[in-house]
Write a structure and sequence with these properties.
about 1000 residues; 47 helices; 2 strands
């Protein structure tokens, strides 16, 4: 706290500011300092308020040892000066007796007699004050449930009594009742009791998050898996990283462990790592640690005990090591509670949780479903589950020869062989076979470098690929393999031609570089005699590929003929030497060239012929890519159904091969696009997430995050808000994102989508905080002021929704300043109109001047747009502005002005026509004008004339739905008359 409050007003202001902080050490320390400050004042009321705030910080900051101490000071003040406690303070004091009872239960060092003595004190105080005893019996039941004795009697004494003003809230009492039925083994009755809380009808600071965490497993046991999934997402978000809800976090970890979501469980554990050290409540620790152990036990049982796990600070943990540590601590806590209580209840409950078998093999909790293999360090790219891994020869000479043969054929199974060889060669004590057929070790090193270079090129790491190919060429030279050396040098030329694109020199520079690369390839070909046929075919393929990339970069029609000529050379050579893979490659390249030139019909004809050939002669692994290309072309022709069929078949066939060798990720991405054209967005969402995860597994992290960003936006558009937030939380927790290694604009886009999702999910506080942070960061984006304008404008709207109109005005001014540099007419106009509406709606006449200032800004933007010839995609700016003038003035009770503005809006809109959106906007304007005129100005006759005419007009045009609010208003006016 920078400066201690010097007056009571300053103290109360500081208390209010601290109350807005999240619970945790910062809030608690500030509350302690404010108590010290309050003691300087002569009157006791400021100290009472400070002590109440301090106890609240202790209670919700999981510091039960300190809560009773703060309350003891309050009770002393009450005993000494009861008259200074007004009705509200007195109510709060007696309410907090329950907090102390709760705190004492959490501390095993407090004797059971001490807990009972406190309940006796509570009862005596309540009776003396003439208060009902239902809250006392509620605490007595909770103590009985904690100890594990006489719970039935205690429950009846509590549950049968009438609630009082000091009873726990409805949501908390519902949870206690449900837990009683749950402990009795009655899942259905427990869930029935919980229904109002789980449905969001009853809530408080801790509910429904607490009830949700307990209800997850009963929901699974009774077959309500969809509801369990939904509640897990929303419930976890409400309790994560919260020390006072660590037990709830533990139950969410347990839920992940028992539903085949162990990888998500480890992810959530990492997100809550701070709870290992921040939770001061032994009872909360016990609940959290038991949930952690359930998860770790499950992960270890699946053979992943050596995976890293987030645990206590100060050292690095594996699953096995952390499990042992957690088990020891949790066993000790359970034993301490049982020793204090004289029962075995806590040990028994803990054992029951640890002994539970998984309830489901797999429940898809989020859009990003991953297994433990995906979170293993340096995990290899996983092939689809449907494919059996290729047999890799055990004999080292056979393995080397097999890898080379498969590589010559372009066979996907070469990947597995090279991967195995890379592991063997890197192992200490590797002994290279003395076999003339295998050749020297330097030759194998060259092979492995060439394979690594190819994989780097596939991930667009062009400089790395070129350098690796050059090194491979040098090693091949040492090994006496001139043909391989020449081919490696040729392979280096193609990525070298693509490097200018990385340096942002533009398409022209890249096209020139590819022209130079092609010329170098031709020279190398001419200067290298006696190449093996497969090597010469590859070199011809490189020549054609260079020109194909040039055409794709330039779009220049003059580049078509040379490309077709190169493709024909490759096709003729491969046909003459019966190199099936290069024949189909040439045909596929020719079809792609037709597609690039815009001749989609010719492309389809070529692909149809190629598919017939592949079906008859192979190679089979070319079928998925070929079907993928035909699917993309069908999309270009507008036949989404045919595209969907081709891409689905391509995906089915791709399951027979390693996913990175047949571009399964792209097939999923293209299929998502086809699904969107077919208006099947949920199916599209599944394909987008699968595409992204495959890209992530193959190391294409930027592409993966871009695809995930699209998936998150689609899930938000579909109203799947919690899915969107859970997906983005998972992505933003990735180590490279947290370390700032991913493109900052891409990360900002992920955060922006998350902020919008939080807003859609009605978490206004979190959404506003994220928007404000993004607005501050984007202010420095000198190369992209338009994005800053939009982020600042959205931030302003959220601040206005929170009633912070001063900050909203500041954010709007930032947006307007950025708009000058990069106009965003439509979006900014909409935000300014919304700001005006919010201020007038919340403040009425008092806020009219500021609301009209927002509308004046929107008017200037509309003038600028008109002068620039800008046409809005949605609502036209001028009639929308006139309508908002009407609505804002109506909120401020300036009804005549409002009606004039609405009539102007109707004039600008013009009469409705067949367009439904325009008719809806017109009808809404008529409705508001009718309400202002008929209800507020008390002129029902002209209002009814207006409404009846509008209904007739809309009905004649077939817009019956738009007439409903108008006929309803007209009926109301007639009833009034």
């Amino acid at each position: 706290m920078p400066t201690a409050p010097q007056t009571t007003d300053e103290l109360y202001q500081a208390l209010q500011e601290n109350d807005r902080r999240p619970y945790g050490r910062t809030r608690t320390v500030t509350a302690e300092e404010l108590v010290d400050s309050a003691e300087q004042f002569a009157e006791p009321v400021p100290l009472i308020h400070a002590l109440l705030a301090l106890q609240k910080a202790y209670n919700y900051g999981s510091e039960p040892r300190k809560s009773p101490v703060a309350f003891a000071r309050l009770l002393t003040l009450f005993d000494e000066q009861p008259d200074v406690f007004d009705e509200r303070l007195r109510h709060t004091l007696f309410w907090r007796f329950k907090w102390v009872a709760h705190a004492l239960r959490q501390l095993p060092e407090i004797p059971l007699a001490g807990l009972r003595q406190w309940l006796t004190e509570m009862r005596d105080r309540y009776e003396k004050a003439g208060l009902g005893l239902q809250p006392y019996y509620g605490q007595a039941y909770q103590l009985a449930a904690h100890v594990g004795e006489d719970t039935d009697l205690a429950y009846e004494l509590w549950a049968g009594r009438t609630r009082t003003r000091l009873s726990d809230c409805e949501a908390c009492e519902i949870c206690e009742r449900a837990l009683y039925h749950l402990a009795a083994g009655d899942d259905e009755r427990a869930l029935g009791t919980w229904e109002p809380v789980l449905a969001g009808k009853e809530c408080c600071q801790e509910e429904p998050a607490r009830s949700v965490s307990y209800a997850l497993l009963p929901l699974l046991r009774t077959g309500r898996t969809d509801q369990a999934r939904e509640l897990h997402l929303v419930g976890y978000r409400a309790c994560r990283r919260n020390p006072s809800m660590s037990g709830e976090v533990g139950r969410h970890l347990e839920f992940c462990a028992l539903t085949g979501n162990e990888a998500r469980g480890l992810e959530l554990l990492a997100e809550n790592r701070s709870l290992f050290d921040e939770v001061d409540s032994p009872l909360d620790q016990l609940g959290f640690l038991t949930g952690v152990e359930v998860l770790l036990q499950r992960v270890a049982s699946l053979g992943h005990g050596e995976l890293p796990a987030a645990g206590y600070a100060g050292r690095t943990w594996t699953v096995t090591g952390l499990r042992a540590e957690v088990r020891g601590r949790a066993d000790d806590l359970a034993a301490r509670f049982d020793a204090r209580n004289g029962t075995t209840a806590h040990t028994d409950r803990r054992r029951a949780r640890l002994d539970r078998a998984p309830l489901l093999d797999a429940l898809e909790l989020t859009l990003r479903t991953r297994g433990l293999d995906d979170v293993a360090p340096a995990a290899p790219a996983a092939a689809p589950a449907a494919r059996t891994a290729p047999a890799v020869p055990e004999s080292l000479p056979e393995l080397i020869l097999r890898a080379r043969t498969l590589d010559e054929q372009g066979h996907p199974d070469a990947v597995a062989c090279w991967a195995r060889l890379r592991t063997l060669v890197a192992a200490p004590g590797y002994a290279h076979p003395d076999d003339p057929a295998v050749g020297p070790l330097v030759r194998l090193h060259a092979d492995l470098l060439a394979d690594e270079a190819g994989r780097a090129g596939e991930k667009d790491r062009f400089e790395e690929a070129a350098a690796l190919y050059e090194e491979a060429a040098s090693r091949y030279g040492e090994a006496g393999a001139p043909g391989h050396a020449a081919l490696a040098r040729a392979c280096a030329l193609l990525p070298t031609g693509e490097i200018p694109a990385e340096r942002a020199d533009g398409a022209e520079a890249k096209a020139a570089a590819l022209t130079a690369a092609h010329a170098a390839l031709v020279r190398l070909h001419e200067e290298t005699p006696a190449l093996a046929p497969y090597q010469e075919a590859r070199l011809l393929r490189l020549r054609a590929s260079a020109l194909g990339l040039r055409l794709q970069t330039s779009g220049n029609e003059e580049h078509l003929a040379p490309l077709f000529a190169e493709v024909d050379l490759l096709l003729a050579f491969a046909t003459r030497h019966d190199i099936a893979g290069q024949v189909s490659g040439a045909l596929l390249l020719r079809a792609s060239t037709h597609a690039l030139s815009g001749d989609l019909a010719a492309a389809v004809t070529e692909i149809d012929a190629l598919l017939d050939r592949l079906t008859a002669y192979g190679p089979a692994w070319h079928l998925p890519r070929t079907l993928g290309l035909r699917g993309r072309i069908q999309l270009g022709l507008g036949d989404a159904q045919a595209a969907h069929a081709d891409l689905t078949e391509g995906l089915r066939l791709a399951a027979d091969w390693p996913s990175d060798t047949v571009d399964t990720a792209r097939l999923h991405g293209d299929l998502a696009q086809a699904c969107m054209h077919l208006r099947r967005p949920d199916e599209a969402l599944r394909h987008l997430t699968r595409s992204a995860e495959l890209e992530l597994r193959h190391g294409s992290r930027t592409d993966a995050f871009c695809t995930y960003s699209n998936a998150a936006q689609l899930s938000l558009d579909l109203g799947r808000v919690e899915d969107c937030i859970a997906l983005l939380d998972s992505l933003l927790a990735e180590p490279d994102v947290a370390a700032g290694k991913l493109d900052d604009r891409l990360v900002a886009q992920l955060r922006l989508t998350r902020a919008r999702a939080l807003h859609a999910g009605e978490d206004l506080k979190a959404a506003t905080a994220e928007f404000a942070a993004l607005a501050a960061e984007s202010a420095d984006w000198d190369d992209d002021p338009g994005s800053h304008a939009m982020i600042a404008a959205e931030t302003a709207v959220l601040l206005a929704e929170s009633g912070e109109f001063g900050r909203a005005r500041e954010a709007a001014d930032q947006a307007l300043a950025a708009h000058v540099r990069a106009p965003r007419y439509e979006q900014l106009s909409g935000c300014l109109r919304e700001l005006a509406r919010l201020q007038a709606q919340q403040q009425g006449a008092e806020g009219l001047a500021d609301a009209l200032a927002f509308l004046a800004d929107a008017g200037r933007i509309a003038d600028e747009a008109r002068a620039a010839g800008y046409e809005a995609r949605g609502r036209s700016l001028d009639p929308a502005l006139a309508y908002e003038h009407g609505r804002v003035n109506a909120y401020a009770r300036e009804y005549e002005t409002a009606l004039i503005a609405l009539d102007k809006a109707l004039t600008l809109l013009g009469e409705p026509g067949p367009d439904a959106d325009h008719a809806g906007e017109w009808a809404e304007c008529v409705r508001l004008a009718g309400a202002v005129e008929g209800i507020y100005l008390e002129r029902p006759a002209p209002a009814l004339t207006r409404l009846d005419a509008a209904v007739s007009r809309l009905t004649a045009l077939g817009h019956t739905e738009e007439t409903e609010p108008l006929t309803s208003l007209a009926a109301r006016l007639r009833d009034k008359g």
